[in-house]
Structures are given as structure tokens and as C-alpha cells.
């Protein structure tokens, strides 16, 4: 407009004024007019520079919002297609985001001022003026306010810078040389250096994983937005990658607290689900079901509330880890996610379960529930690694190939050992009744001794209850351990001070006790195959072989290496000698009194004496 005024004035003067007078008038008035034009244009440009800062902020927020929406659409598409092998990266699919020349901001005031300055032969000065002002604006925009927490101001901070460079990209492309590519790159380098410094400083202060994730996500979107315009964002991504260890350490710390709370709230009771949505949320969500057939409701799960609660924490950890690692320029990050998932399971969850077992499990029912939970966690861990692979865009076959052993082995073993230990204590309560056995009786107890009948009743009740909650493989292991303990207790009693002497009737009574154990094992048809039942019997092979030896007509055959390996391999020399001495008749022995020399010695006692003497010589 000011330029048109100058042209109109010149036209009127040329028409109405003689040439000599006109020349003097022009010489006198033109500098004044030029000054007026410069002032008017400078004011318009100043107003535009103020307005463009607000425009830049809105423009940056819009661009980053579009990048976020685009990312969300891609993730939804990936989930819908269920094709983890297809990885959609923002920086790869850049054609969708080509910049438009209609981004809602007006450069007309800037270009008019530039054109007027060109007309007035002030082009170079204007270029420098524009660059200097924009550089000052950028430095001002790059300052972080100490009055507002960065978590609250980071979106505005990064959006302002994003908008700044979207505008400069347009000026570079359409400004007719107003700013050069080298100058834009200088400004970008300045901005990147400052943003990296701000991120380093802010990340070093943060102690909450979610805060790092929020800022990291916004910075990655900033990178996606500006990469479309050709800006190099690698230094920003390197800062994000540099802090992945700190982020995961904070995330692990958060999960440790959450798991401790979840486990401390557990009541060691099977979980009741009354509605289908509860089953979907607590079972199907983590692929814990053992059948594709939906159960009838209300449904009682074999696990307690601690299992789905911990599963939710682990799943959230995986998703947060993938979120931090993805969208940052790194295509292959499954190994990193898996490394931290291994730590979460093998350190955090395993240690939390070990602590729970050692401090809170005091009775059989609690130990049984924890052991049942551990079996369910095995299925859950398979889901965790598949879920991590799918979110990371890794084919499941590759993820399965890289799987390690069950990461909760320590707590699983501790749960089973605790259950076995508590069951053994219960068994020991019944085994006290062994003190009532008449070890020198001449009568064989009918139906076995009292202690063994009580033990069998308890074992039958235990199996009936445990089958409702414990997996068969766990119950088998625990039962075998308990039965082996019974065998060891009986042998220990025979070798201990409680038994001074043994009669053959007492040995036959023990034989009936072992037959009861045999019968109990054989009746576990719903739990054990015939082969497994025979393997279970090896748990009490020690007392079985001891009784067989004592009932044998020729116990000295124990000394034959071939027979011993075949029939008595579980027996210890010292224990055999101790029990044999208690069984023999002192009046009928080669070590007996002189008054017995004329009598004929019982062949079995003679065999026992030979066995005892040889075993003493060996020891």
C-alpha cells in the first residue's frame, strides 16, 4: 500500500508540475516518503512477528496432533489385521504427510514487506533483520520456564519449536530467497542442541517412569512431524535411547511396589467369577484358560486374585516398554523389551513371590493355593512373551525360538517345597502314634498299625482336595516327596532309640503298613497311570526293601553284590546292621552266653548274625 502511494504521488507530480520543479520536489519529498514507507512496513512486520509466534504454537500442536492420530490409526490397523510381521513406521510412510501450502497461516505481510524493501534496494538489510529477529524468537522459545513444571509445559515448549520450523520451511520454499537453506539448518542445529540439553537436564531430574514416557512420546511425535519437512531428528532420538535404561529401572521399581501390594492383598482363596466379563478380564485376557469351552457361571478358578492382578502389572509393563522403545527410529527392539521382561519376571515377580512364601504362607491351604498359582503363572509367562513379540512386530516363531526356561523357577520350587514341608509336619503329627506300636509283640496287628491308618486317611483327604486346585504334575511331585518322608520316618524309628528290640510280628505289622501305602498308590487311578503308580512306589522303596530283607529266610544274601543291587539297592549298611541287631534273638546267637552252646541255633538268626558280623567288619 505504501508503495502504491509513492507511485501515485510520482504520477500526479509528473502531470501537473514542470520537469525542473518536479525534479526538485521529488528530491525533497522522496526520502521523506521512503522513511514513512519503512516505518509503516516495519510496524506491519513487527505485528506479524508477534502474531506468528502464536500461530507457530497452534501450528505445532496441530502437526503433532496429526502425527499422534496417524500413529493411532496405524496401531489400530495393525491390531485389526493381527499381522505382527507388518511394522508400520511413521518415518517410512511419509508420503501420507506431505506438507500442504494451506496450513492456516498467512505469510502475505512478510512477503509484502520483503517486496517493498527489494523495491527500495534494501533487500540485504531486510534479510538480515528477518533472520536476526527469528533467531531471537527461537532462542526465546527455547527457554524453559522455571515457574512451571516441565511435565506441564513440555507440550507447549515443543509445539512452539515445531511450528517455528514448519513456518521456516514454507519461507524457504516460497520466500524468493528471503532465507537460505544454510540459515534454516543453522537455526535447526541451534534448536536441536538446546532441546537435547533440555531433555538431558529434565530426564536426569525425573524419578517417575510415566513422566519420562509422556515426554518421550511427545518428543517422538515432534520428530515424526518435523521429519516430514526434511529436518534431521536423530540427535533427539539418541537422547531418548540413552535414557531407556533409567526409564526401565524406574518402571521396574514401580512394578515392584505394585506387585508387593497385589500379593499382600491376596487371601489365598480360589477366585470366584460370577459374570462372563469377569472371566474374560481375568482369564481370557492372559490366555490362562485350559479349555476353549466357556465354563458355567459362577466359575471358581484354580488361582487366587494375585494371579490376574500380577498379570495386569506385567502386561502394562510390556506395553509401556514397547511404547518407550517404539516410534523412536529403532526398528528392532524386541531383544531390549525381552531383556527387561526377563528382569521383571526373574527378579521382581520371582523375588516378590519368594518373600510372600517365606513370610505369609503358614498352613497347608495357603501353600497349596500358592503352588496352584505358580502353575498358572507358567501359562501366563508364555502369554507375556508372545504379547511382547506381537507388540514389537516380531513373528511368534522367532520369539518362541528365543524363549528361555520358566523365569519363576525359584518361587515355584519354594512353593512346592513349602507345601511339602507343611504336609510333612502334618504327617509327623500322625507319626507320633508310632510310639504306641508294640515292637516286641508276638501278635501281628490286623489291618496295619494305627499311625499308618491315620496317615492313609489324611493322604486320601489331601488328594481329594488337591485335585480340585493343583495340576496333576505338581500333586505327583508333592505326593512322592511326602510318601518318601513317611518311609524315611519309619526307617528312622526302627534305627532310633524308641525301638530297643523287634519281633517278627512287628516286622509283619510294618509289612502290612507298607501294603496300605501300596494300595493307596494303586488307587490313584484318576491321577496316575500304571507306570506313574509304579514310579510313585519308589518313594517308599527304602522301607519296602528293609522289610523284605528282614522277612527273608537268608538275610545274609544282602552281602551278595548282585542280589543287593537287584533287591536292596536303597539300603544303607549301617541302618541294616542296626535294625538286624534289634531283630535277632540274643539267646540264639553266636555271640550269646556259654549256656546256649549246646543248643541248635535258628538258621535265620544264624544268617542275621553272619550279616551283622560282616557289616561290622566292613564298617
UniProtKB/TrEMBL annotation:
Taxonomy, superkingdom: Eukaryota
Residues of the Exocyst complex subunit EXOC6/Sec15 C-terminal domain: 235-582
Entry GO CC: cytosol; exocyst; membrane
Keyword set includes Transport: yes
Segments passing through the bilayer: none
Residues in Exocyst complex component EXOC6/Sec15 N-terminal domain copies: 2-64
PANTHER family per the UniProt record, alphabetical: EXOCYST COMPLEX COMPONENT SEC15B (PTHR12702:SF1), SEC15 (PTHR12702)
Record function comment: Component of the exocyst complex involved in the docking of exocytic vesicles with fusion sites on the plasma membrane during regulated or polarized secretion. Involved in polarized cell growth and organ morphogenesis. During cytokinesis, involved in cell plate initiation, cell plate maturation and formation of new primary cell wall.
Protein name per its UniProtKB record: Exocyst complex component
Amino acid at each position: 500500500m505504501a508503495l502504491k502511494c509513492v507511485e501515485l504521488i510520482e504520477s500526479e507530480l509528473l502531470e501537473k508540475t514542470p520537469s525542473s520543479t518536479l525534479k526538485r520536489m521529488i528530491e525533497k519529498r522522496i526520502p521523506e516518503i521512503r522513511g514513512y514507507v519503512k516505518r509503516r512496513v516495519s510496524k506491519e512486520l513487527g505485528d506479524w512477528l508477534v502474531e506468528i509466534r502464536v500461530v507457530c504454537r497452534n501450528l505445532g500442536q496441530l502437526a503433532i496432533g496429526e502425527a499422534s492420530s496417524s500413529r493411532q490409526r496405524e496401531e489400530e490397523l495393525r491390531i485389526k489385521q493381527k499381522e505382527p510381521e507388518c511394522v508400520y513406521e511413521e518415518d517410512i510412510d511419509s508420503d501420507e504427510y506431505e506438507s500442504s501450502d494451506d496450513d492456516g497461516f498467512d505469510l502475505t505481510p512478510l512477503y509484502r514487506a520483503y517486496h517493498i524493501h527489494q523495491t527500495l534496494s534494501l533487500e540485504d538489510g531486510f534479510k538480515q533483520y528477518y533472520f536476526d529477529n527469528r533467531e531471537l524468537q527461537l532462542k526465546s522459545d527455547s527457554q524453559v520456564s522455571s515457574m512451571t513444571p516441565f511435565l506441564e509445559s513440555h507440550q507447549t515448549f515443543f509445539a512452539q519449536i515445531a511450528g517455528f520450523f514448519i513456518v521456516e520451511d514454507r519461507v524457504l520454499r516460497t520466500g524468493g530467497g528471503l532465507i537460505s537453506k544454510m540459515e534454516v539448518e543453522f537455526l535447526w542445529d541451534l534448536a536441536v542442541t538446546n532441546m537435547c540439553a533440555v531433555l538431558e537436564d529434565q530426564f536426569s531430574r525425573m524419578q517417575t517412569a510415566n513422566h519420562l514416557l509422556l515426554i518421550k512420546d511427545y518428543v517422538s511425535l515432534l520428530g515424526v512431524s518435523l521429519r516430514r519437512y526434511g529436518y534431521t531428528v536423530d540427535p533427539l532420538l539418541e537422547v531418548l535411547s540413552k535414557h531407556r535404561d533409567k526409564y526401565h529401572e524406574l518402571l521396574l521399581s514401580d512394578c515392584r511396589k505394585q506387585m508387593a501390594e497385589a500379593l499382600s492383598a491376596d487371601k489365598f482363596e480360589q477366585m470366584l467369577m460370577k459374570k462372563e466379563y469377569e472371566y474374560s478380564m481375568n482369564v481370557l485376557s492372559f490366555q490362562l484358560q485350559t479349555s476353549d469351552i466357556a465354563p458355567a457361571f459362577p466359575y471358581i478358578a484354580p488361582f487366587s486374585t494375585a494371579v490376574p492382578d500380577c498379570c495386569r502389572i506385567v502386561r502394562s509393563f510390556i506395553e509401556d516398554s514397547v511404547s518407550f522403545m517404539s516410534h523412536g527410529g529403532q526398528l528392532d527392539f524386541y531383544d531390549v523389551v525381552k531383556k527387561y521382561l526377563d528382569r521383571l519376571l526373574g527378579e521382581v515377580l520371582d523375588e516378590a513371590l519368594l518373600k510372600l512364601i517365606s513370610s505369609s504362607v503358614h498352613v497347608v491351604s495357603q501353600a497349596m493355593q500358592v503352588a496352584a498359582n505358580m502353575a498358572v503363572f507358567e501359562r501366563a509367562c508364555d502369554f507375556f512373551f508372545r504379547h511382547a513379540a506381537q507388540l514389537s512386530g516380531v513373528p511368534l516363531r522367532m520369539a518362541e525360538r528365543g524363549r528361555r526356561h520358566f523365569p519363576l523357577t525359584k518361587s515355584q520350587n519354594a512353593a512346592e517345597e513349602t507345601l511339602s514341608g507343611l504336609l510333612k509336619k502334618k504327617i509327623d503329627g500322625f507319626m507320633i502314634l508310632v510310639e504306641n506300636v508294640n515292637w516286641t509283640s508276638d501278635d501281628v496287628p490286623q489291618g496295619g498299625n494305627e499311625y499308618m491308618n491315620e496317615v492313609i486317611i489324611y493322604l486320601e483327604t489331601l488328594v481329594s482336595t488337591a485335585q480340585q486346585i493343583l495340576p496333576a504334575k505338581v500333586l505327583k511331585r508333592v505326593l512322592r516327596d511326602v510318601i518318601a518322608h513317611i518311609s524315611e520316618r519309619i526307617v528312622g524309628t526302627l534305627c532310633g532309640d524308641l525301638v530297643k528290640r523287634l519281633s517278627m510280628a512287628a516286622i509283619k505289622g510294618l509289612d502290612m503298613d507298607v501294603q496300605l501305602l501300596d494300595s493307596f498308590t494303586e488307587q490313584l487311578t484318576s491321577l496316575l497311570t500304571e507306570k506313574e503308580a509304579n514310579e510313585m512306589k519308589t518313594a517308599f522303596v527304602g522301607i519296602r526293601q528293609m522289610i523284605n530283607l528282614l522277612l527273608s529266610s537268608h538275610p545274609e544274601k544282602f552281602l551278595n553284590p548282585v542280589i543287593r543291587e537287584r533287591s536292596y539297592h536303597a539300603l544303607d549298611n549301617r541302618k541294616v546292621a542296626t535294625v538286624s541287631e534289634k531283630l535277632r534273638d540274643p539267646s540264639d546267637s553266636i555271640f550269646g552266653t556259654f549256656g546256649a552252646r549246646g543248643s541248635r541255633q535258628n538258621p535265620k538268626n544264624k544268617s542275621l548274625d553272619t550279616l551283622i558280623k560282616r557289616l561290622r567288619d566292613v564298617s
